[in-house]
């Protein structure tokens, strides 16, 4: 399982156990058909509520099951859906990262974007585009990938061929792929290539030069989402659509420290 989602599930389980509830974790591996089958299958069992990381291709299945039980979307939202959601706001973390890279002259930036049919993929790319413009840089190099390690490898290789100075991955799995690509080419981090990743991962701190990341604060997201789900289970839906946001924070480490800050 994706380490970020494993952390999110663990945090949700901790919240549930604190109030005497138990959790079942199901994973779709980003496959819409699998998510459809899992979600529709839940309606045939005695489930009190669902926290769901949605895929837009599975909107119908998710909204159908919401007629049978309380549902809260977590990590991603569905545009135009009335379902409550808890997601992170990428702007603070992405803006801080771009400002750091510009200040240290670690440009051009090669950004590995998540799928644009996910709210996270779109919002993070939009945040990067706005942050780049805000510091007066021209448009940077973009690789449109997926939330998979192999996409990180392929994206890093493609962006390195374009002569980027920093590889900035839009999720933790692509960050792992970026590190594989850099090590495979014998590149020194940050002397040859700077790296910015997304989400905490033990491997990022164990690198010879630990990796700068953007933290979505999975514990806070889990707490908000579970609290909202518990409210729906106990009291029913509140008036109006609920979309809560957690912040993102840049955690600066050595992978962006070349000693050349100006």
Automatic annotation (TrEMBL):
Pfam families: Peripla_BP_3. It comes from Corynebacterium uropygiale. The keyword Plastid does not apply. Residues 239-262 are annotated as: Disordered. Residues 98-256 form the Transcriptional regulator LacI/GalR-like sensor domain. The lineage of its organism: Bacteria, Bacillati, Actinomycetota, Actinomycetes, Mycobacteriales. Transmembrane segments: none annotated. Keywords: DNA-binding, Repressor, Transcription, Transcription regulation. The keyword DNA-binding applies. This is Substrate-binding domain-containing protein. One of its GO terms (molecular function) is transcription cis-regulatory region binding.
